[in-house]
Amino acid sequence: MTTPVRRSDVYDALAAPVVILVGHFGSGKSEIALNLGLGFRARGEKVSIVDLDVVKPYFRCRQAREELQANGIRLVAPEGENAHADLPIVLPAVRHLLQHGGGKVLMDVGGDPVGARALGSVSDAVVMDRTEHLVVLNFFRPYTETVGEAVEMVRAIEAAARLPVTGLLSNTHLMSETTPEIVLDGLTMAEETAGRLRLPVLAAVADETTARGLAEDALPCPLLVLKRIIRPPFEGSRQQRKVGPLFVLN
Amino acid sequence: MAKKLMKGCEAIGEAAIKAGCKLFFGYPITPQNEIPEYMAHRLPQVGGTFVQAESEVAASNMIYGAAGSGERVFTSSSSPGISLMQEGISYIAGSELPVVIVNIMRAGPGLGGILPSQSDYFQATKGGGHGDYRLLVLAPWSVQEAADLVQDAFDLADYYRNPVMVLGDGLIGQMMEPVEFRAERTPCKPLSPKAWAATGCNGDRPTNIINSLFLDPEVLERHNQKLKAKYDLMVRDEVRCAAYGTDRPYEVLIVAYGTVARVCSTALDDLREDGVGAALFRPITLFPFPYAELRAAAETARAVLVVELSTGQMIEDVRLALEGSRPIHFLGRQGGMLISPEAVAERVNAICAGLRAEVRHG
């Protein structure tokens, strides 16, 4: 008989001091990093979020700077006008955090092998026995639509990051059109991918609405219930909306 | 999985593939790099060719040459890159060749910044390059619509033998939404074989020549008038627009295009909740501009509010449409700053308050 998996177990599953999130761009790394950051902080941990996304110009963790500050979370990301740049800036603080630790470190790495190259530049400072290096997978995204493509993506990222991947996060969704079946089908594909790579699926991810439709014992792994934080300015409820220079933060 | 979760840039790339585009020439620039990246990945899979040109000037001349062969050809860039392409675009229009150009606008002028903007409206709709020519300009407000309009753009370009531009702001390029591509798609225009294409004839027919040089002024004038007749047909047949909330009484008509219209649509919901009478008019073609449709929609409004991510460009077409019949207000942000639904609603409320004050004084 197996013990039922509780949703809160996701924080135990990701208990390593350093959690590095990699994957295809648009796979959900930034949202997961922000949600995990707030979750660990709510559990009383000291949290730093490292925005190492040097690939895409929009929708990055740094857009939530004020919210993170208000919640007592340290954001490590370029400041001033460089915050808006698409330049390959890796702050010295990144290496310092990796080498000397300091609470929970969540790293949001840019998409694809291209983005993982920035991680590769600090890979010598990563101590693997205190690190989870996780690939986020959404099978509705181009380039990772099949298990075969996902396996290729993981291997290419490992090569660019110069770090072995230690597990997968299943984040298959279709924004507001996500159904519990979509989450479950995606998880099945993530498990098949994990089997081919001999890696564990550490957790599945679902938004609040979809999660309500998933039975507590429907999943073989913990579930991270995600609140979408970075949205375009026309989304979000009237009470929640707060427009930053770029996007709404809910 | 029928639907995919795509960034606007990826959906634009896939739309071009679905439309049968086999050739892409371009040069990278933020915030549209995902388009060339996607084309570089996908074109070899469908037997096509991707070339990264040495500059946007070169890319525009490469699409010029390739379009002459009759193949479907495509380029994309962002504002400063589109500026560099203007010479080629003018030549392409002058030579009557079909190409599709996507501009994912960023804030200017000059190098400007990399965040969303709508400040290339003039460039897209009023020329950009030299000479009497027009681009047919389509402006999507969602990732799905971007995918649909790019496919239509190839049909329209072929039908009119004219460059067609899909004009999106950086937000359209970078945001992700579910997208569906129809398996079977009927072209939006009846298309005939490209008998004009320079494909080699082996002496079997008169030679096809692709050219925009006409030294005889009478011949060049006739050529200009032929082009003008084509643009008149676009004005007659290709206007696209949408209106929201016009089924109920409204005092203020908001006019906006692209993702700004999405923001205004959210504002409209909030205003409706508060019992404020407002409606939204969205041009989908920027050339041809929906002058008559806008005039009709504004007839029952007392004032018009134009909202743009610029210091005011489309507002000039709104003025032409309304011919002084309604007071026109403007709300704009620049530099990559976005407009919030709250700012739109606040402005509409202020306009309504002003209208009521006028009534009291009058």
Give an account of the 3D structure.
The complex is a heterodimer of chains A (250) and B (362). Chain A is 32% helix and 19% strand. Chain A has 250 residues and is an alpha/beta fold. In chain A, the strands form 2 sheets. Chain A has an 8-stranded parallel β-sheet, with helices on both faces. Chain A has a two-stranded antiparallel ribbon with strand order 9-10. In chain A, β6 (167-170), α7 (180-197) and β7 form a beta-alpha-beta unit. In chain A, α5 (112-120) runs parallel beside α6 (147-161) and α6 (147-161) crosses α7 (180-197). Chain A starts with 8 loop residues before the first helix and ends with a strand. Chain B is of the alpha/beta class and 362 residues long. Chain B folds into 2 domains: 3-237, Thiamin diphosphate (ThDP)-binding fold, Pyr/PP domains (Rossmann fold, 3-Layer(aba) Sandwich), CATH 3.40.50.970; 241-361, Rossmann fold (3-Layer(aba) Sandwich). The mean pLDDT of chain B is 96. The chains are: A alpha/beta (250), B alpha/beta (362).
